[in-house]
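Let us begin with a simple case.
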Amino acid sequence: MGVTTDLHWMRHALDLAARAAREDDEVPIGAVLIASDGTLLAEGWNRNISEHDPSAHAEIVAMRRAGQALGNHRLLGATLYVTLEPCAMCAMAMVHARIARVVFAARDPKTGAAGSVFNLLADPRHNHRVQVDEGVLADEASAMLTAWFRAKRGGSPRADTAGSGDGA
């Protein structure tokens, strides 16, 4: 997929992230899952706080919805766009689902599993590897996360890191 396509779907993921914060007071992370033919399979945003479910990260929500829509746990050839680097749980779910590619915006220096802390998506020990592209609209995603955490923490300096590990 080209740069224009990546920008389009990442903007959509950022819109979902904003919706998460605005509608559900969730950490603003959005995810969009696109089929190999370029059609939208599913989307999601963080729901772990509102659903009292530690696994309801944006990526997991989108993959669950896609699996249900397709009637299959394998999401072969799909590309997942997400506003924050996936954590270990989400990365391994992508491996198990056989996602072809993940495109993320901001790095997560505390829990990122696509190269920042771990590199689970490219680990040669797995029977499937996921192509990773990063940095698409990273500044926008990082600013959204920083603003949300600052508001939650009353402007504390800890909020300056995009990835906090708090529900991302």
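The second case is a distinct protein. As before, the sequence precedes its structure tokens.
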Amino acid sequence: MTMPETENKIENHPMMKKDWYYSIEIEPGIFTPGRGHRNIILTRDLLKGIDVAGKNCLDIGAMEGLISILLWRREAAKVTSYDRVDFSEWINFIQERLDVPFSYIKGISLNKIKEFTAPFGLCPYDVVIFSGVLYHMFDPLSGLAMVRGLTRNGGIMIMETSAVLTEKDECLMHFNNGGRFFPGTNYWQISFSCLDYLLRLLHFEVLDVSYYKSFTVEGIQQGRIAIVCRAVDGPVVSIGDQWMPKTIGECYLPDFEEFIDWDTLKRRNTGDVPYASDKKAGVFHAGTASLNVFESVKIIPETKLTDPDAQIKLKLDAMS
């Protein structure tokens, strides 16, 4: 017996009735029912500047795989998609319809990614996307250290997170006590300056930023920020900073060995992954090639939402 045409339509598929984070076009004009969160525009804005063709890429906090799809479409050599929560049903649905056979890892802790993927020669990675995850972690420094341990020297990491914009150059974090900023598993709202400092401490050089302001809570300006970094051989120390170690040999601070195998990251360096930006140059930390995030956002305009269908939704022909 032939099913009525209306029952065969993709809109009537059971997966289209489920809760989706991202809106992904699966047939011309037909999108999964995503929530329309605009923070994805920041990650996509910076991803445009990376030539991922032939690169080994990791997408952390993938949800239903929007960024993983883009990496695959742009001919990354290998795409590993990871989420702590099991979205296998959603991922299978997307992969079957869009023919994007990236690898999918789910249900394990982030600190186990290295041991899970290293036997397959995947770790460390050329490009790591760490979008929408940090403020869900109860220890942001450890979280960033784990991600640094997955990024080879010369590689690129894009981090996107909820954060706070301070009036002064303050290195601080606000705890989400009582859910005053967000409900659910959200712990810290970290300042732009603190993100900058922790990244440089972990041997990341800041190349570019994309951000926007959102709401204010208790006089604290909230926002979203994405930062693209290059993994380098040592801490990125600005002139006048007497605390951050200048070389590994002089390091008198904990060197994060429980998360980072510095020798392997350095040994796997196969050259810098190129990054290009169409933004005007920002402000750099004294004596470094690393952007000063706090000062740069004063002159780099906020990333605006001008075309939700192109910036938030993922179209069938989208490449960035």
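The radius of gyration is 20 Å. Residues 1-5 have pLDDT under 50 and may be disordered.
Keep these points in mind for the review questions at the end of the chapter.
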